[in-house]
Please model this.
Amino acid sequence: MAGLAKAALAGDVRAAAQLMRDLDDRQPGALQELRELYPATGRAYVLGVTGNPGTGKSTVVDWLIERYRRQGQRVGVVAIDPTSPFSGGAILGDRIRMQRHSTDDGVFIRSLATRGHLGGLSRSTHDVVTVLDAMGNDVVIIETVGVGQDEVEVVAAAHTSIVITVPGLGDEVQAIKAGILEIADILVVNKAERDGADRTVRDLQGMLELRPREAPTVEVLRTVATRGEGIDELCAAIERHHAGVGAAQAAARRRQRAFAEVRDALRERLLEAAAAAAGPGGLEAIAAEVAARRTDPYSAAERLLAALRGTDPPRGAGGC
Amino acid sequence: MAGLAKAALAGDVRAAAQLMRDLDDRQPGALQELRELYPATGRAYVLGVTGNPGTGKSTVVDWLIERYRRQGQRVGVVAIDPTSPFSGGAILGDRIRMQRHSTDDGVFIRSLATRGHLGGLSRSTHDVVTVLDAMGNDVVIIETVGVGQDEVEVVAAAHTSIVITVPGLGDEVQAIKAGILEIADILVVNKAERDGADRTVRDLQGMLELRPREAPTVEVLRTVATRGEGIDELCAAIERHHAGVGAAQAAARRRQRAFAEVRDALRERLLEAAAAAAGPGGLEAIAAEVAARRTDPYSAAERLLAALRGTDPPRGAGGC
Model:
């Protein structure tokens, strides 16, 4: 385990992959390795890509990888599949893509599914982005189905957020767009050869016009990703967004990302500490009391907080 | 504020609605009210309904409400829309349904969108379920787009979990189904009049057959909810699932729900306490240090945990 960070910084892809697995498995020692990587981070351009299942976002991401590779840029991808809380399996499409790019040293794809950790998927996502960034990838793409709160936040904190939709998924999608509009820097209507594409574009533009006058520009683009149509325009829109972001806005997103990283690291660490302070049986024993209605969840939380505070602080532990 | 719990227990719907709002707004005092409700909970049958946007799950839920009402049962619904982390707005379909059931005292519908609380949407969901249960609703339906980790967990912990899909959403959906299969007690192929319904049913049954021999039975049903087709069969399947769950399995789900409640209450409470212990500027000040790469998120988390432990425990506070 020791030395994985150094090896990853030196460009050892297998060491980086091992470190990601160790982090995901919460192996002892992996966090210390990650800390060594942290000073080397902050250089990658982070793209967030989200969209419902069936919108073809993997195909769009594939094209983005191809364009960045043509420019000689190194690309890291983290694909988030939060629908499998128990299996921890990789997603189907990802395996296919791994094969397609398997001969290209300039592309590194890692898929994440939660394994029921207390801290959850967003911490694992931060970890993978940190490793991909420190490895020297120029661009890191975060791809997610993104209708869960954590996933939406991850995409919202990217340098550029792309939301992909398709024509005619019904009224429910219309309602969802209202929420997704708030995080999109660029809106893509994929499968634009289908009936209803014009209307979807008009609807989106209409919703954008309802925003406050000072709201930043959001471009609405059409793509037919299966045929590569509209990809040049998408790349140009990303470039325009990148160039148009002021220093203040860039700093605000950097702080937003850092806040999410601290919060998610803290969330997991605090729960671990509370579980340890809970005594024999841990949180499960307390949950059994709640299930039996002998206490309520909020009283239980107060008791655990008090127990945590009563615990002696560890000697010589901690990172500072 | 005082007395809302008592009023809600006595059947005052407006008091219950006010308490839900106060809880969602994290009003001081609201938690104490909730604690008073807790002993009156545990009697409602909790149904979880999840499916991607556009699968028509709201229409299915509407039919379930109608059938339960026909039996004279009181129904509470919590509709979760996690896609709007910033607006906090109610979802469109919900407003429409509110009107439809607005003259029926036996139906109470509440929609939830996250407002960026540290603890997140799942805690708010637990709170609403607690109030709906304590109010004396016989059935509580949790409806969510459910591809985020927290939302999936909420549905998985219900007495009966229904996963709704539609024919032919492509390969990505196939991959997702593999995850969703693990939480479904009943699988519904809605819009079954469409091409490809047979194949979707066969695919789902095929995937179910791959599970271990001892895995519980999962029925696959077809509905055309817009025409009310297949709803009787769905109700019968819910009844069969309900009747077939053994005492051990029911107790396990109860503990699973209680564990999630404790964890989510704790998650929020611990983050609040850590933010208070962080000193001036709170978590934001520490995030700024991380953004400037002066520290890393994990070292920051350790520092905050140490600060939290160093804090004197509150005198006379806590619920036990």
Remarks:
- The CA atoms of residues 7 and 193 of chain A lie 47 Å apart.
- The beta strands of chain A are 45-51, 75-80, 107-112, 139-144, 160-165, 186-189, 219-222.
- Confidence is low (pLDDT under 50) at residues 84-95, 312-320 of chain A.
